[in-house]
Amino acid sequence: MVASRDLPCPSEPLPGRSGAGIAEPIVALAERWADLLVEGHAGLSGRLEVLLRRLSTVLRTEPFRPVAARPVGAALLDTGLAEGDGPLPEDLIPPTLSLLRRDLPGVLDLPTPQGADRLVTALDEFVAGFTAALRERSRPAAHPDARLECAMADCELHYRTLYLQGPVGIGIGDLDGQVLEMNPALYRMFGLLAPPELPRPVTDFVHPDDAVGFIESYHRLRADTGPDSVGIDVRLVRVDELVVWVHVTGSLIRDAAGKPSHVIAVVQDVSDRHRLRSRLEQAASQDRLTRLPNRVVSEQMLRQAFLPGVAHRVGLCALDVDGFTSVNDGLGHQAGDQLLLAVAGRLQMAAGPHLVTRTGGDEFGVLVLEPDGLDDVCRVADRLLTALAAPFHIGGQAVTVSASIGVAEAATAEACPEELMRAADVALSWAKAHGGGERVVFDPERDAGEAARFALLAGLRGAVDRSELQLAFQPLVRLRDGRVRGAEALVRWQHPEQGLLGPGRFIGLAEHNGMIIPIGRWVLAEACRTAAVWWTELGPGSPYVSVNVSPLQLADPDWVREVSAVLEETGLPAEKLQLEITEQAVLGDEAVALDALDALRAAGVRLALDDFGIGYSSLAWLRRLPVHALKIDGSFIDGLRHPSPDPVDQSIVHALIEMAHALGLEVTAEWVETAVQSDRLSRLGCDLGQGRWFGDPGPATWVAELWRRTIR
Ligand code: C2E
Ligand code: MG
Ligand code: MG
C-alpha cells in the first residue's frame, strides 16, 4: 500500500519557477506578446502581464483546473488590444497561441511532460473563454431566445470537452497541408505526451507507403468541387516507429463567406480492426486441416517466382490423390481428414525444400524453384509418388492410396504463371484419364491437338443451324454392267476458317459428345430430299441413297420414328433409302438395335452392314441381322490392286462374297480404285463397287448425270 504522504499534496504547487524568479521573464514575454498583437504597442504589455500571471497560477495550482483559464481568455478581450485601429478580436488568438505554446513553458520553467500537457489544456480553455466573451459581446442586446443561446454555449462546452478529453484524435490543418493543431488524443496516438512543434506538413505524420493516397484525398477535399468530407484508412508512424492504423475523416471548414478555409481531421485508431483483418487474411491463406498454404497462396507464390530476378526456371507438380472419395465414403470423413493430414506430412517430407500447398480437397501442389530442367521436377514428382506408396494407418486400418501427378516446367522468361498452372493441371488430367498412379509430363503438342479438337467441337455445335454441313454423293456401281444403282451420302463440314472438312475430322468428336444425333438427323433428311428429287426426275429405276448411321442414332428410341417421318415428308419410297450400320452399332445394345433394324426392314428400308471384315462378327451372328447387303471394308480391296494380288486378301474377299451370297446378301466392295480391282471383284462375284475408279464423292446432280449415262 502506498503511504498517503507519498501522494502529492492537493495544495502543493506544480514544481517550476515561481514568485520573484519568474517576474522578469514574464514582463519580457508580455512585451513580446503585446508587440506581436499590435506592433509598437508594447505599452499595453502591463495588461498582458496580468494575464500571464493568472495563467501561471492556473498552471501551477493543485488540483489542476484548466477551466480556470477561461476567464483569463475572456480577459484578453478586455485588454482593449482589439479596439479602435487595432486588429480584429479573432486575429488575436492565433499569434497568442503560437507564442504562449512556444515560450510560456520556458518562462514558467514548466516540467515536461506534465506541464506541457497542462499548458495545452489550459490554452484550449483560454481560447474557449475568449470566444465565449467575444460572442457575448457581439450578441444583440435583446436576444429573442435566451434559452437557445444557453444551449449553444452548452454545445460548445461539449465540443471542447470532446476535443480535449475525448478518445478521438482531432487535427486542424490549412489548405496547403500544414497541420496547425492537434488535440491530446491525436498526439498521444503518435506516442507523444505533448503536442509536436506545429505547423508541420501533414505528410510528416503518415506512413510513406500511404502518403500518396492520403495526399490525393487531401487534394480532393480542398478542391472544393468534390465532397466536403472524405474518409481513408492510413498508417501513422509513432515516435517509437510503431505503426498505427487509423481511419481519418477529413472535412472541409468554410469561412463566413462559404470559402474553404481549413481542414479538420477526425482520426480513429483502427489498429484492432486491421489486426483482425490480417488474422482473417492469414486464415484465408492457410488450409485449416493441414496448415499448408492454400491455393491462393500457391498462386501468389507462383506469380512471385515469375517476377524479374527471382528464378530462371520454375517447375510445378499438381498432385491428386486417386480414389480419395471412396476412402471418404468407405471410412468416413474423419478418416478422410486423417488421411489427408498424413498425405500432407509425407508430401512435405518428400518435397524437401520445395513449397507444398493444398490446392483443393485431395489436391496438392509442389512448387520447384530453379530446377535443373524438367528431369529435376520429374524426380521430385517421383519422390512424392514413392512417399505415398506405403500404406497409411488410419483408424486401425491400413489404407493404400496412389496419386496422379501432372508435371510442368518452364523458363520464367518464356512463360507466365497461368500457363504453367494450366500445363500442370492438364498433365494431371491426362494422368487421371490414364488410370492414375503415375506422373505425366505436360506435352504442348498433345495439348495443341486437344485444344484444336475442343475448338472444333465448340464450332460444331452451331454448324447445322448455320447450314455449314453439306453432302457429297459417291456412286455405288453394279460391276456386271457398270450401272449406277445407288449413291452413298457422305457428310462434309464447310468450316468458316478451316475450309472443307471431311467426316474423319469431326464425326468421332460428334459421336463423343452426342452432336451426331442432330447431325445425323440433318444428313438423313437432306439425303432423302436429294434421293426424292432423283426419283421424281429419273423414275422408278432411280439410284437409292445410302446413309451412314451412327451407333448413337441406332440406340436412340426415337430414331426409327424419325426415319419414317423423313420418308413421309420427302415422299421418298422406303426402298430408295439404304441405311449403313456397323457391327459396332449393333453390338452396343443388341436387342434394341435388332428391334430397330427389324422395324426398318419391315417398313421396306434397305439395310447394309458397313466396313465388314474388320470386326469380330461370326457367321452365326451375321445370320441374325436383318440386313440386305454387306459392304466389304476397303482395306481388303486394297490388296487386289496389284497385277499379282495378295493371295490372302483375295481369298478373304472371295470367302466373304461367297458367304454373303449364301446368306442372300448383296455385296458391295469399297475403295475400288483401279480397273484391275474392278475386274477381279467382278470375277469373284461381287455385286457392286464403290470408289475412285467409278468416281469420288460429288454433287447430287453429278450422280443423276452419271446414272443417265450408264443406264443406256
Ligand atoms: P464409309 O461409310 O466407309 O465411307 C466411305 C469412305 O471411303 C468415304 O470417306 C469415302 O470418301 C472413302 N472412299 C471412297 N472411295 C475411296 C477410294 O477409292 N479409296 C479410298 N481410300 N477411300 C475412298 P469419307 O467421306 O471420308 O467418310 C469416312 C467415314 O465417315 C465414312 O466411312 C463413314 O463411316 C463416316 N461418315 C461419312 N458421312 C457420315 C454421316 O453422314 N454419318 C455418319 N455417322 N458417318 C459418316
Ligand atoms: Mg459408309
Ligand atoms: Mg465403309
From TrEMBL:
InterPro entries: Biofilm_reg_signaling (IPR052155), EAL_dom (IPR001633), EAL_sf (IPR035919), GGDEF_dom (IPR000160), Nucleotide_cyclase (IPR029787), PAC (IPR001610), PAS (IPR000014), PAS-assoc_C (IPR000700)
Residue stretches making up the GGDEF domain: 312-444
Family matches, as SUPFAM superfamilies: EAL domain-like, Nucleotide cyclase, PYP-like sensor domain (PAS domain)
Chain ranges of the EAL domain: 453-711
PAC domain sequence ranges: 230-282
PROSITE patterns: EAL, GGDEF, PAC, PAS
Protein name: Bifunctional diguanylate cyclase/phosphodiesterase
Native source organism of the sequence: Pseudonocardia hispaniensis
